[in-house]
Write a structure and sequence with these properties.
alpha+beta; Aminopeptidase; seven-stranded mixed sheet; 7 strands; 20% strand; Acyl_CoA_acyltransferase; transferase; GNAT_dom; GNAT family N-acetyltransferase
C-alpha cells in the first residue's frame, strides 16, 4: 500500500500460463469491442476484422499467449490484474504497415508498444505509466534497438475517452523519453525511443 492509500502497482512480463489473468482482465468484451489485443496482429481490417471480433479474436489471442508468441506486460494491484500493455517486435504487428502515418524504415531491432488496456476503475492511478515504464525495460532486456509508440493526439484541456486512448496519449510517452518523429499532430503519430546504438 502506498502512502496515498492506493495499492502499489506491480508489473511483470506476460507468461504462457497467464491466459486466465488476461481473460479476467479483458472480460467478456475482450478489453474493447471484441478486440482481444488482435487489432495490430491481423494484416487486414474491414470485413475481415469485423468477422474476427469476439470469439475468433479471443481464440487467436489465447493461442498466441499459450504458445509464448504474444509478448507484453501485465500490471497488478494486490495480486489482481489491473492493466495490460502489448509490446513486441514490430514484425509481430503487420497491420501497422497499413497506416501511412506509422510507416517508416525499420528492422528486426525495432519493437512496437501499441496497446494499453486499463479498466475504467483503475484509470488515473498510474497504471498506464507503470505499464509503459515496464514495457520499455522489457524491450531493452530483450535486445530491442528502438521502441515505437503510436499515441492518439489530444487537444489541450481535452480528456480522451478510454475507447480512443488504447494506444496511449503523447504525455505518457514523452515522460518516458519518447520523441515524435513528425506527423500532423492529429490522430495517431509515431513516437520513437532509442534503446541502444
Amino acid at each position: 500500500m502506498r502512502a496515498s492509500g492506493q495499492p502499489a502497482i506491480d508489473t511483470r512480463p506476460l507468461r504462457r500460463d497467464d491466459w486466465p489473468l488476461i481473460a479476467a482482465l479483458f472480460g467478456d468484451n475482450g478489453a474493447c469491442g471484441g478486440c482481444w489485443c488482435m487489432w495490430w496482429r491481423v494484416p487486414m481490417g474491414g470485413k475481415t476484422w469485423e468477422a474476427a471480433k469476439g470469439a475468433p479474436n479471443r481464440a487467436a489471442f489465447r493461442a498466441l499467449v499459450e504458445a509464448g508468441e504474444a509478448s507484453g506486460v501485465l500490471a497488478f494491484a494486490d495480486d489482481q490484474p489491473v492493466g495490460w500493455c502489448a509490446v513486441g517486435p514490430r514484425a509481430d504487428f503487420p497491420r501497422i504497415e497499413r497506416s501511412k502515418a506509422l510507416q517508416r524504415d525499420w528492422d528486426a531491432g525495432t519493437w512496437s508498444l501499441n496497446c494499453l488496456y486499463v479498466p475504467a476503475r483503475w484509470r488515473g492511478r498510474g497504471v498506464a505509466t507503470a505499464l509503459v515504464a515496464a514495457a520499455v525495460a522489457f524491450a531493452r532486456r530483450q535486445g530491442a534497438r528502438e521502441l515505437e509508440a503510436y499515441p492518439q493526439a489530444v487537444a489541450a484541456g481535452e480528456r480522451l475517452a478510454g475507447a480512443f486512448a488504447w494506444t496511449g496519449v503523447p504525455a505518457l510517452f514523452l515522460a518516458q523519453g519518447f520523441r515524435p518523429t513528425g506527423g500532423s499532430g492529429r490522430g495517431r503519430s509515431l513516437y520513437l525511443l532509442p534503446l541502444r546504438p
